Amino acid sequence: MARARSIFVCQNCGAITNRWQGRCDSCQEWNSIVEEIAEASRPTRSKGGRLVSLEDLSGQGEEAPRIATGLAEFDRVVGGGFVRGSVTLLGGEPGIGKSTLLIQVCAALARRGARVIYISGEEALAQVRLRARRLGLADARIELACVTEVEDIVATCAAGGSAALVVIDSIQTMQSQAVDSPPGSVMQVRASAQALLRFAKTSGSALVLVGHVTKDGQVAGPRVVEHMVDAVMSFEGDAAHHFRLLRASKNRFGATGEIGVFEMTGLGLTEVANPSALFLAGRDAEAPGAAVLAGMEGQRPMLIEIQALVAPSALGTPRRAVVGFDQSRLAMILAVLEAHAGVKLSLHDVYLNVAGGMRADEPAADLAAAAALVSSLTGAPLPADRVYFGEIGLSGAIRPVIHTEARLREAGKLGFREAMLARAQQIGDEISPAGVVPRAIPDVASLVAMVAQSAPAKA
Questions:
Q1: How far is CA 29 from CA 12, 23, 214, 226, in A?
Q2: Which of 81, 105, 426, 429 has the fewest CB atoms nearer than 10 Å to its CB?
Q3: Residue 53 maps to a domain
Q4: pTM higher than 0.85 for the full model?
Q5: Which own/partner contact pairs does 3-7 have at CB distance under 8 Å and 24+ positions apart?
Q6: Does residue 51 fall inside a structural domain?
Q7: Measured distance between the N- and C-terminal CA atoms of the chain, rounded to whole angstroms
């Protein structure tokens, strides 16, 4: 009998220490280290391994077969559909709509004649049925179970034929009999994920694991789980807005960075085929301090509005508040505007917001943010049919960004006729094929001069 020993594991990052301490040295999280019991491994005799066949790169490779769900936005993110035997980890904040999204995906597959199994470790069967009835999916032939024992789940899913899709909601509630540790601990999450992954690879069923998230938005549990699975997706959104984004940060069978846009309604999540039109709907084009960014989310162009408010400050240290934008990048833009364009913002409060609950994380948003800031400071509204994209360097120069044609094409579809961009990526003086005239701007000083020309005269 192997002798049991105590180890201390961080429940946030999975780091192991020999003693308890108040703060984890790896992730710097406080009060996250918990004592767990692990069996000492037995020494094994070394033996010769069996020979495996080696092949070269010239062999014929077949594309992995996929299971399309019929939900275009979801299939876009996963790469065209689920790959048989793949394991996907889906994370998101509580109440964001993960269970609603997955029950709709299960119903779409079940209505196509596929066998679908939904395992709930957090809700009772009556609660799952109630949600399905509210979404109008009660007629879908989804096999439900409320169980947390991994061995029972594997045996149940293996019986009755191979399932096309198995959903585990959530991995933090699962427990394996092989590990003497409470559910949700690092050892249980790792052991449960390994057992379910082996089942998916041997049976050919596509597996989706739902994961909780930490305070900073990362999937809770050991990071090794993210390395074990084939795809990692996050379901994002703001409780104050009805838009939800499904984003792929890792995908072995598709492109990373892809997003799918959904709208939360009383009947569940509906797909948004043209998110740019919705994000720009209802905007006040005549108000100063608003610029339209021709951005990219993965391989998908998207137009979003960046709003700025610059007001005199009554505080010794002016406020800098941002929503949906990187605060350190805003500080850099303000410093460049003051150093190279003479825009004095050190005595003003600055507020920057990305409308619609979106995030503008790419460097191409610099030019749109700077235009919105200067517009708010001078009181000059920007042209309603103009979009902006470009990176601002510390020298004040506007640097080019990628995917110019896709950005212009999306702007042309929504009626925009002019695009401000870097001089190095100017297409030409003629109208581009998208119907948008590209206008080059060399630096931030030229941007400030251009906006200030249309500023109202001061009394």
A1: 7, 6, 11, 20
A2: 429
A3: no
A4: no
A5: 3/39, 3/40, 4/37, 4/38, 4/39, 4/40, 4/180, 5/37, 5/38, 5/39, 5/40, 6/35, 6/36, 6/37, 6/38, 7/35, 7/36, 7/37, 7/38
A6: no
A7: 90
The pair of three-digit structure tokens given for residue 219, joined into one six-digit string: 């999937």
* Angle at the Cα of 236 from the Cα atoms of 308 and 92, rounded to 5 degrees: 145
Q: What is the pLDDT of residue 430?
A: 46
Report yes or no: 196 and 154 within 8 Å, Cβ to Cβ: yes
The per-residue pLDDT for 39 is: 56
Cα separation, 5 vs 76, in Å, equals 47
The most distant pair of C-alpha atoms in the chain lies apart, rounded to whole Å, by: 91
The predicted pLDDT at position 424 comes to 75
Which distant-in-sequence residues (6+ apart) come within 8 Å of 101 by Cβ? 74, 235, 244, 246, 262, 269
Among 68-72, 256-260, 292-296, the least confident range: 256-260
- Whose tokens are 């509210």? That residue is 134
pLDDT tens digits for range 168-215? 998 989 999 888 878 878 888 889 999 999 999 999 999 999 987 765
Does residue 155 carry a pLDDT above 90?
yes
Question: What are the residues facing 301 on neighbouring strands?
Answer: 296
Whether residue 411 sits in one domain with residue 296: yes
Side chain identity at residue 343, one-letter code: V
Judge if 235 and 354 occupy the same domain: no
Reported as a single tens digit per residue, the pLDDT across 42-76 is: 555 556 678 888 888 776 666 667 899 999 999 99
Domain around 21 = 4-39
Residues 177 and 319 both lie in one domain: no
Residue 341 amino acid letter:
A
Rounded Cα–Cα distance for residues 112 and 384 (Å) = 45
pLDDT score of 427: 57
Q: What percent of the chain has pLDDT over 90?
A: 54
In a domain, 49, yes or no: no
Distances (CA, A) of 203 to 154, 158, 167, 178, 401: 10, 7, 14, 21, 45
